[in-house]
Design goal:
341 residues; alpha/beta; Thrombin, subunit H; 2 domains; 9-stranded mixed sheet; 18% helix
Length: 341
């Protein structure tokens, strides 16, 4: 398949620039992947489409204030870091701009000297490996001087940083939010549990690679970025139990989907595991674990719309997107949602 097969026209005004006041009042497009039928709902009513003995799998990652604004130690030239991946021993993989200012050995200062960094390697895609120097606790310094890195298509300032976090976010480590989960409120999750629907928490720390354009012509030639994931025994037991009873495993977001499909065996069962995944799901992929997917609307020609197309079917997906544009759904991170079943 060609990357251009996943292009669709999107008027700029449909790119949501801020979240709705009530998380669960987003619109919800329902897509039946067997028939291609599309219907329209409000997100809070998703409970009417979930069955007793289903299992929602949510990603409990938390976005860190991964954007750092600083200056070069010897010249004072401005620099911007975005933290991508912790490598241990105070070392991180980072994206930085302007890149030409960051040769090996270059040193940078952030927050009036609260944090210092030295470039120790240049890797693929021009990213750098840096080693940080500081006194105290790194996370606390980050909370003090860091900024939540919003996606490049959001140009409006976010007044409340918690609105770019899910209500169930716990484990710090992401450079971007698992946005399908932004629609859930604590009250809605309680209603869902009360209906006899299980909720399993897994973790995938999302890197900014999720926003990177696919630069090859043929889909199969694209190489996915790698992201850390973790599934504990409690989550795997819950998911396997629901599977055995014939309930549906519904991934909340493409991140949850990628983790489940990374660790699932041929019978669809999983085991506790952690590691890094670079799984790339596109049409032709045979799903092992998930039976349903809750997701936002994704960028044209992105790996995320390719994953959705693999699950819902290419024609169904592109038709649903065409309908969503026509019906003026809100797109991307702060936009509306789809439930594919």
């Amino acid at each position: 398949m060609k990357v251009r097969d996943f292009y669709y026209e999107l008027p700029e005004e449909l790119i949501a620039q801020e979240p709705l006041k009530d998380r669960s009042s987003s619109r919800l497009l329902l897509l039946n992947r067997k028939t291609g039928e599309v219907t329209h709902e409000i997100f809070k009513n998703i409970i009417n489409y979930l069955n007793e003995n289903d299992c929602l799998v949510i990603n409990d990652t938390r976005v860190i204030p991964a954007r750092l604004l600083g200056k070069k130690e010897n010249t004072g030239g401005k620099i911007e870091f975005v933290l991508l991946k912790s490598l241990g021993n105070n070392m991180w993989e980072v994206i930085l701009k302007p890149g030409r200012r960051a040769r090996i050995g270059s040193r940078f200062v952030f927050g009036d000297g609260l944090l210092k960094a030295e470039v120790i390697d240049i890797i693929e895609d021009g990213n750098r490996i840096v080693k940080f120097e500081y006194e105290g606790i790194f996370e606390q310094i980050l909370d003090k001087i860091g900024i939540i890195p919003l996606p490049p298509y959001i140009t409006k300032q976010l007044n409340d940083a918690e609105r770019y976090q899910t209500v169930y976010s716990e484990k710090k480590g992401s450079a971007a939010a698992p946005t399908a989960g932004l629609h859930f409120t604590k009250e809605l999750l309680e209603e869902i549990r009360s209906k006899g629907i299980s909720i399993a928490k897994i973790t995938l720390h999302i890197g900014l690679g999720t926003f990177r354009p696919v630069k090859v012509e043929n889909v199969e030639e694209h190489h996915m970025h790698s992201e850390y994931y973790s599934i504990n025994e409690e989550a795997s037991t819950t998911i396997n139990s629901v599977k055995k009873k014939g309930g549906r495993i519904i991934a909340v977001g493409t991140t949850s989907c990628r983790v489940l499909e990374t660790v699932g065996n041929e019978k669809g069962y999983i085991e506790p595991k952690e590691g890094y995944t670079d799984i790339f799901i596109y049409p032709g992929y045979k799903f092992k674990v998930i039976d349903g997917l809750i997701t936002n609307f994704h960028l044209p020609e992105s790996t995320l719309i390719m994953l959705v197309s693999a699950f819902a079917g290419y024609e169904n997906t592109m038709n649903a997107y065409k309908i969503a544009v026509k019906e003026k759904y809100r797109f991307f991170s702060f936009g509306d949602a789809m439930f594919i079943y």
